[in-house]
């Protein structure tokens, strides 16, 4: 039985696009060694979810039959980020230490922890937790014993990173990310104030807004990991597309109404022309206020629903 502890020195390189985070930490193994026996936990442990791993330093200490091995490690850890509620997200980073030599791990909780004042720009870090478990791999890994599975002792080291002042930090990042989209939607909304007969002007405003939304979606898609489910970012982009589409439909409808009124005047039916113009102006007034605020209210509700759902993260090993 081996007591295993971890002390995290630094966390950096939080990278959504490449699905990874970099962790610098000490790990130690405390065990009792009988005379004539050979036990080397530092040589038989593996960090199974690391894509890059370096053991920088190794120290040993002995007191009677008790042994301690201390190692300094730097690892780039694979992390499948869950960004459903980005930019109001939080994540759990996990390190999986497994033994390949048949030893049994027990958490050495008391001395384990994190560097005081550990700073990840934009994030708060929660305390470290250690959990020992048995990991069963559904493969023999080619063992000559004829076994159908492999069982190993594992220590799970976990800590949570949260957006600093989650609501306000997330709101600030949200404004930073979507400022261009919101400005473009405001410009598209201004099309409702352009005379109905100026279809080209209206089309220019709405098409410009459409390109801005497309650009925002492409930019965020390159910096965030792909997701098989709807995310808050997806919802805002879809809502923006819907808003632009409604503005285009209203512009086309208003242009048709303006031409209908012109035809009525050409036929010297002023009463019908005024009726058509009044109907178009009434719809425009409704769209300027009711439609716009309704869309904004819907998007606020959608945002809050994603924030409250907060699916969190799941282990992947």
Key terms for this structure?
single chain; alpha+beta; 5-stranded antiparallel beta sheet; 11 strands
Distance between the termini: 23 Å
Proportion in helices: 40-55%
Rg result:
30 Å
Query: Can you give the mean pLDDT?
Result: 86
Q: Helical region count?
A: 5
- Along the chain, the helix and strand elements come as EEHEEEEEEEEEHHHH
Shape: rod-shaped
Strand content: 25-35%
From the helix content, strand content and strand pairing, which structural class follows?
alpha+beta
Largest sheet: 6 strands, mixed
Number of E strands? 11
Low-confidence stretches: none
Spell out the blueprint of helices and strands.
Elements: E1 2-15, E2 20-32, H1 41-44, E3 45-47, E4 50-63, E5 66-78, E6 90-99, E7 105-107, E8 113-114, E9 123-125, E10 129-137, E11 150-163, H2 166-190, H3 199-223, H4 232-266, H5 270-309
Parallel strand pairs: 1-7, 1-8
Antiparallel strand pairs: 1-2, 2-5, 3-6, 4-5, 6-11, 9-11, 10-11
Give structural notes.
Helices cover 41% and strands 31% of the residues. The chain is an alpha+beta fold and 317 residues long. The strands form 2 sheets. Strands 1, 2, 4, 5, 7 and 8 form a 6-stranded mixed sheet that branches. Strands 3, 6, 9, 10 and 11 form a 5-stranded antiparallel sheet that branches. The mean pLDDT is 86.
Summarize the structure.
The chain is of the alpha+beta class and 317 residues long. The chain is built from five helices and eleven strands, in the order ββαβββββββββαααα.
